[in-house]
Prior knowledge:
The protein is an alpha+beta fold. The chain has helices spanning about 10-20, 40-50, and strands spanning about 1-5, 30-35, 55-60, 65-70.
Amino acid sequence: QLLDARGxxxxxxxxxxxxxxxxxSAGAIxxxxxxxxxxxxxxxxxxxxxxHEFLACEAFDDGWTIRVRKxxxxx
Length: 75
């Protein structure tokens, strides 16, 4: 699933990712496009807290594509 969070600032990209990942099965991958300068750090911390796997953070024109694998379904 692809989530477009470009143009949004913290905490909105994380809030949207939280809603999106709840719709996925454990092991599914969520890709997030974000332009918030703090997004890479925020998503890495969020993954640790929520027990998701931070797979990658790739730079593009003015932001990042962040890939997260959903951890065990708890919520």
